[in-house]
Each structure stands twice: as structure tokens, then as C-alpha cells.
Amino acid sequence: MSLEWVKGTLEEKLGFLPYPGTLNLRLETEQDRLQWQDFLKTAKGIAVPPPNASFCSARLYPIEIGSARRTLHAAVVVPEVGGYPEDKMEIVAPVQIKDTLGVQDGDSLNVEFCAVSRRR
Predict the structure, then answer these.
(1) Which of 31, 66, 78, 97 has its CA 20 to 30 A from that of 22?
(2) Helix (H, G, I), strand (E, B), or coil: what is residue 110?
(3) Strand, coil or helix: what is 5?
(4) 73 located within any domain
């Protein structure tokens, strides 16, 4: 998240500068993993092309992520690279997510996917 082209692209596509780090979630059940993989097969998301062949492309899926205390606008980033874990959600937001939501490792979070707007 600290690369200038990544920050600029995410600001352009999502409307916010990403905090320099991601929150990685692991899906708890096999059903969750299957639903996530089905979602990725059908949802287009927002394309993030690489600036050159040294980097991989990715897709963004806008979300609202929350705890009992608060909800944030954020996005799931899915790098388009072989071997990326099927049970992982890598989340970016304009703030440090764990501190802002008041959560710790092992806590549950609610993730709600939002309709994709046509930002360019």
C-alpha cells in the first residue's frame, strides 16, 4: 500500500488514500470459502491494472466492514496471482482498521459488499 502507483490508483478507484497496511481476514468455514470463490467468479469488481509487467493486476470489491462499535467504508483487494489463498480477504481502508473498529486478532467482523460504481 506504500507504492505511489498503488496509492494513486486506489484513491482514483475508491475515493480514498489507503492506510499503509491491510487487514487480512481468514474465512472461518468451508461454506464461507466456497461462497467467496463463487462470488469472485461472478462479481466483476474494479480492475487495477499494473503499471508494468513487474507487478500483478488486482481487483477491488468495495465493502462496509464493521464491529459492534462502528462501520467503515473499505475494499477487499484480490491480487490476480496464482496461489493466492482462497480463504483470505485482504482489506484496505483510509484508516487503521483494527484500531478504528476497536477489534483484536481473533475477533469477528461483519463484511458487506457494496454495489460497484463506475469510477475511472
Answers:
(1) 31
(2) strand
(3) helix
(4) yes
